[in-house]
Amino acid sequence: MSTAVHLDEITKRFPGVVANDDVDLTVERGTVHALLGENGAGKTTLMNILYGLYEPTEGTVYVDGEPRDFNSPADAIEAGVGMIHQHFMLVDPMTVAENIVLGNEPRKWFGTTVDRERARQEVIDLSQRYGFDVNPDDTIEDVSVGVQQRVEILKALYRGAEILILDEPTAVLTPQEVEELFEVFEELTAQGKTIIFISHKLGEAMHAADDITVLRDGKNVGTVKADETSNEELAELMVGREVLLEPKSAPREPGEQVLTVENVHADDNRGIEAVTDVSFDIREGEVFGIAGVDGNGQSQLVESITGLREPTSGKITYKGRDITRASRRSRIDDGMAYIPEDRHERGLVMDFDLVQNGILGSQHSSKFSSGGSIDWSTARGHAERIISEYDVRPPHADADAESFSGGNQQKFIVGREFEREPDFVVATHPTRGVDIGAMEFIHERLLDLRQQGKAVLLISSKLDEVQGLSDRLGVMHDGELMDIVDPRNTTEEEIGLLMAGEHPESAESETDAADASVGDAR
Amino acid sequence: MSAADGAKSVLRRLVNASTVERILISFAALFMAVVVGAVIVLVSGRVATCQTAATTLFGLGFCYDPVEVYLVLFNGALGGPFLLDSPGLFNPNWNPLNFGFALTLKETTLLIFTGLSVAVAFRAGLFNIGTQGQLILGALATALFAFFVAPFLPSGVLGGLILIPLSIFVGAFVGGVYGAIPGALKAYADANEVITTIMLNFIAAQVAFVLVSEFFRNPDSQVVETTPLPDWGTLLPVAFPKGGDFSLLALAFGLGLVVAVWYLLEQTSFGYDLRTSGEQPEAAEYGGVDAKRTTVTSMFLSGALGGIGGAIWVLMVMGKWQAGVPSLGFDGITVTILAGNNPFGIVPAALLFGTLKSGSLAVQFGTGVPKQLVGVLRGLIILFVAMPEFFRMIGSSISLETDDDAVATDGGRSLLGGDDE
Q1: In chain B, how long is the greatest CA-to-CA distance?
Q2: pTM over 0.80
Q3: CB B419 to CB A44 under 8 A?
Q4: Fold of the A3-239 domain
């Protein structure tokens, strides 16, 4: 077996972020190689480099043992590398055959006219060779997504691809189509093609790949053989345990109940139930964490608690008062701080400067306004204090929120919410996008609040973060609160299985858990 | 760089333009409009037939002289401070308090109110096209209120001091309520305010027409109009000639409202709610702003300003309500776009409109240029000056982030994390 692709110490930097950090990757010819990792781990960037869409900042790409310098996908195709993106690039009203030959059409009459008959025949030959079930005369808009994907693969093969890269190929497919796709993989590798596919689903990688490389935070954290590894090992690699958190302060005796959630149901924006019968409580001096793969109802639960979404049923009590239908403002006024999930949409008004953003949510509070008029000089002082205490860079209170980097925007929001002197903090992904130093600072502040007897609800898809900071940890799956565990006496694997919707006790859960996207962290 | 990228970068440049740059852009646009207009005047002057050429260029005779047209336009708007026969010479008989200038300021004053009306709604993210309807009903309410209350008041200055503020208030209130209707429809029934306000314009015009023609018609008049108010119940011209339909008091009131609207938007908690809703509704919701209430209140406010415009039209210009209300409300949309929705910007924008209106009358009477062509020149100026601001509005409402920007602002997720969506 020879090496088809070798990426040697690839580093890719974008302004403000390192997408790939010194990544090595070796893919053997005739194998299926899965690139596994969380959102933002740098998988697609790495493959875009191999496909010539990006140039690496450092490092070299070898294809068939030769160093390559791809300036565009055309160069990559020339070298036999084809990529099938998540969003298909097909012309809907044209036929399957026309789409496949598009750009490389066989010609007749001295190259003046497309030879449709030959094109059609070539497509038929090609699909027969790989056992593809496609009709060359169907128009793209009439065929299923699974067939469209096969057309994309045929398109790459038609251009002579020996190495096929597929970006999240299963994301758009039904389970049956996924099976069919994996059969296609087998057929292709049997004929000597090499396949690299991007995924964040453990089960798929285990099932379809020969080798699995796990990326985390832009780094290659390990390449393993699929038949020599386990779901647990992969989950561990993906989620990672290295980020060290400060050892937490001594356990506290929790005080009064601050927030009680009872049998809450909530819908998502499409009207589909996203939160199903969730109940828990949070006490003074306690950090209650919620772990779970993104999109399992955490957002809707948090919005129900903070007043941005009305639950369809159930009851939410805050400081002894039923707030199920209370307005967002009354909750803010009652000492509820909220670090929102989406800082661009909610947390900051992008066209406002930081002075104006600093009073978002407090614009009616007596701290900043009297008689309906806002005291802008107090507001400015407030913004400047947040900027200096939370190290927002550059320290320009007059700059629009939009002009700051994601991490600095986040620091400003965290600062604003903590400076509210809240009784209860809802923190969703509070450290998303911030550097390690700021992360530790935010963690310390959260623990300070806990020490002062405040209640904290922490939602994060970083398992180590919720596990390290929480006193109690709820795990959500498919809208339900699977269990509430003591994070100190529970292993990551057990939590991972809960995140996948399985109780660790039941041993037969393994296959189901494998299909779940453990560690689809954002 | 593709054409789309090029367009995006131009838009981005426009969106990020500073105030000074925007003013310079406006003047440059004005200049360009004059240049283009001059060419059109020349070309039409070539194809038109006339006895004697107004100007001769390159041995060709042209019926209209573009230089003259523009000089007359701007000179006429000021009531003729220059003697155009001997260029550059100051007219010794010129009095700033003249009819031409009064006409300019009359139009300016009315457009300040309607411009403010539209601006308030725009700032709240509401596309209020209904200022015209709000103005029509506000005007009618003012005229009827003043007509029915006047007999109970002492005539003269004292009566005017009581009647005029009350009438304006009634006009504002009725305009406000009429504005609040589409606001409530938007807030509670999710009805698009663009559609509802346009429809309500027709309704307002027809309802007012029927009311006046059936119930409140002046029996002595051939046209559909209410009975004229007594002179003491209308706004006095103050210093300007009496027939100019312009009152300095109304202008002062308008300028006062400009400051008041600015203060409301920029310095109050309510204004903060309103602007946040307009900029980013999700963030407003997060910040505890009651979106429904803010929508209704903003629309009431916008309608009230439109209603005041109507009241001033009745009290300053007509002295009565008359069918065929001029399209001040629609012009207000252009005025506020021109002003970048900034209350202070509305004053020069309205002044430009007033100048063009009054100046084009002067061109019509003072030169042989047909009024349709004058209309083209006006339209060109408005189009040219408004377009940069219009594109700014479009630019700031669509995402112009390049891939690199996205990386910098969201930690790279759009590029790196797009795979897992």
Answers
A1: 78
A2: no
A3: yes
A4: Rossmann fold (3.40.50)
